[in-house]
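Internal tracking record. Fields below are filled automatically when a chain is submitted to the structure queue. Please do not edit lines marked as system-generated. If the sequence contains nonstandard residues, flag them in the REMARKS field before resubmitting.
Queue: standard
Priority: normal
Entity type: single polypeptide chain
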Amino acid sequence: MRIRKGFTIIIVPHSGRRNKEIIVSGVNFLLFFVLVVFAILGNYLFFRLGFGSLRNEYIEYENKKMRKELVELEEELKGLRSSFAMVYEKNRKIASILEIDAPSNGLGVGGAQLETKGVELDNRVSLLKAIDSLKVALFVEKRLLEDSYRELASRQELIRFTPTIKPVKGYLTAGFGMRIDPFTGELKPHLGVDLSAPKGTPVIASADGIVKFAGFYHGYGKLVIINHGKIYETWYAHLNSINVSIGQKIKRGEKIGTVGSTGLATGTHLHYEVRAGGRPQNPLNYFYPDLVVD
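SYSTEM-GENERATED OUTPUT FOLLOWS
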């Protein structure tokens, strides 16, 4: 009996049936083993190289995305620094105009702008921190600027409606305060000043306002009263002519009439009064031409 050389593969079924035997020659078994090894190796290399390539592509994509984000963050930081510097400088200029100390944002000199200059801005985290810091500083600085603008506007408004110039080119002939009344000879208060000038000399408004009265009023003769907001009123009496009407808006320096001698007047002149909160003030204290900027 001839003995076959090779390998026997025994298959054991689960059903309890008889085992099966497959006899494979040595050459075939070797061939089968080589094929199995190559199949496993091929699959391994395919998946290894394939996934590796995809992984490299993904990493490159993420790197590009991060580089783009860093560039955008750097641009945002640059814009914030520029905005902060502009607002910061405006605050200082307005403070100089108002002659007050420059407002503090509570973040030290230069605020967060200076803090970011020493930071290594070479990564996303440091850039985000610098941006957040500048955003806070810019927000605070803008609020300070708004306050400064409000204060500046308030002062400019006050100056606009404050009598600050002589209403006529003339000479002072009677001052403010107690004096002998030229008609009765009694000691009486003189509620304004008298400024002598030729008849027809232009009379101008000493501040912005609205005409409250324009007409004849007892001893004042032809009279113009201008309301200058919540505080001041000015009275222009003994006019020869009136060039405005009630309710008319007036600008400082605008002609409202001419010098005359109407009413109780001993000669041609302008009787001029300044009232604050309804109380007569000395008009000489309100002749400040240096404050007027028209």
